[in-house]
Amino acid sequence: MSQALIVVDVQNDFCPGGALAVPGGDEVVAPVNAMMERFDTVILTQDWHPAGHYSFASAHPGKAPFETVEMPYGTQVLWPDHCVQGTEGAAFHKDLRTDGDLIIRKGFRAGIDSYSGFFENDRTTPTGLEGYLRSRGIMDLTLAGLATDFCVAFTALDAARLGFAVTVDLAACRAIDLEGSLQTALSQMKEAGVDLQS
């Protein structure tokens, strides 16, 4: 069976010095590059927000980053402006290999955020990743990248829900850990049958 490596959001804004830096975010680059050799298919996801995206705290007067608001699809964490289309912050880390088979851009609809590589945060609007994988006969996925407790976890949980066999290589991931979000994400992934490798 074909296997795919899904590299989640290894972008400048999630690395040290970025607008939404994940502690040690750049430490995933070397292990991810090394992992690419072992997979038939490599897919990269890329956060790709328009300016003024509704998940940005700056779009909500009086709100600060990391506060929450209610959206039609549920509770939304408000983030600092990050990964704005065409900016240096949205670019992949300069040392990351980007010679994969496919780049999935997500979060480009102004009114809805998108953590998962499979769906927007309404859990129903697809990115096209599932169809691509199924058309290639790929049902075995390994995930790495940023951040463990948000985009990696959401992608892993959706993949498991869709019937894919999912492994998350925790050594090639880093977390934000917002008020216990890492432990919650790890528990949810384990419960969903995701194989957590460290």
Can I get a quick summary?
20% of the residues lie in helices and 25% in strands. It is of the alpha/beta class and 198 residues long.
Write a structural description.
The chain is of the alpha/beta class and about 200 residues long. The chain contains four helices and eight strands. The radius of gyration is 16 Å and the shape is globular. The strands form two sheets. It has a six-stranded parallel beta sheet. A two-stranded antiparallel sheet has the order 3-4. The chain has helices at about 30-35, 130-135, 150-160, 180-190, and strands at about 1-10, 40-45, 70, 75, 100-105, 140-145, 165-175, 195. Helix 3 (about 150-160) packs parallel to helix 4 (about 180-190).
Number of strands: 8
Please describe the biggest sheet, giving its number of strands, its sense, and whether it closes into a barrel. 6 strands, parallel
Number of helices: 4
Fraction of helical residues: 10-25%
The helix-and-strand class reads alpha/beta
Q: Can you write the helix and strand succession as a string?
A: EHEEEEHEHEHE
Mean pLDDT: 96
Distance from N terminus to C terminus (CA atoms, Å) equals: 23 Å
**Sequence stretches where pLDDT stays below 50 over 5 or more residues:** none
Q: Rough shape?
A: globular
The proportion of residues in beta strands is 15-25%
Rg (C-alpha, Å): 16 Å
Strand order of the largest sheet: 5-2-1-6-7-8
Question: What's the arrangement of secondary structure elements?
Answer:
Blueprint: E1 2-8, H1 29-35, E2 41-47, E3 68-71, E4 74-77, E5 102-106, H2 129-135, E6 138-146, H3 148-161, E7 165-174, H4 181-191, E8 195-197
Parallel strand pairs: 1-2, 1-6, 2-5, 6-7, 7-8
Antiparallel strand pairs: 3-4
